Amino acid sequence: MIKHNKGKKYKQFATGLQQPLLDSYIVDFRQSIVLLQDNIDNNVLLKNYRLELAMKERVAYIDFRKIRNAKDLAEHLLEQYKQFFNNATDFKLSQDDHYAVADVLDLFTKVDNKHENIVVWMDNFTDILSLQEHGWLFGLLRGTFQHHQNIAYVFTSDSKEKVNKIFMNHDNPFLKFARIIQ
């Protein structure tokens, strides 16, 4: 939906969230957020927003509905990394799942240390709960993400219950890691 505000046009998502506010969270403040895709209209608008964002920012996109295991996650992350940086052309993934994910996350950490701005958009992030390895993956991902200053993380989900299980549960490493926008 397009709204007008003092002569300016901007998108307003079904949640009432406006595009300039999203830009502020993600681009200006590099803040991690969780967006609920609670209806089809909102889902389409978020996809379009992500594509627009990719025109002005480096956006690494991971759809967790396509991730089957930890090794698969490492491969998808590496593929996204290679889109932006050529220094990983000879990079070989470890045969050990844990090290494979950790090594690729290390590449993102090195980029963060060079003050390169990236947005990592993790669609359907709550589907990580269906992975057998989700327990140690939570710890590894959160332990790495918390040190990134120039990488903004956007997590989307269509389940408020699963979002709460990941981001509001005191036993989960992602507790209060990202601002939840409903």
Protein described:
It is built from 6 helices and 7 strands, in the order ββαβαβααβαβαβ. It has helices at residues 19-28, 40-53, 70-84, 97-113, 134-145, 160-167; strands at residues 2-5, 8-11, 33-36, 58-63, 118-123, 151-157, 179-181. The strands form 2 sheets. The chain has a 5-stranded parallel sheet with strand order 4-5-6-3-7, sandwiched between helices. Strands 1-2 form a two-stranded antiparallel sheet. β1 and β2 form a beta hairpin. α3 packs parallel to α4 (97-113) and α4 packs parallel to α5 (134-145). The longest helix has 17 residues, at 97-113. Residues 1-10 have low confidence and may be disordered.
Provide a compact summary of the structure:
The chain is an alpha/beta fold. The protein contains 6 helices and 7 strands, in the order E-E-H-E-H-E-H-H-E-H-E-H-E.
Set out the fold topology:
Blueprint: E1 2-5, E2 8-11, H1 19-28, E3 33-36, H2 40-53, E4 58-63, H3 70-84, H4 97-113, E5 118-123, H5 134-145, E6 151-157, H6 160-167, E7 179-181
Helix pairs in contact: 3-4, 4-5
Feature tags:
about 180 residues, alpha/beta, five-stranded parallel sheet, two-stranded antiparallel ribbon, 6 helices, disordered N terminus
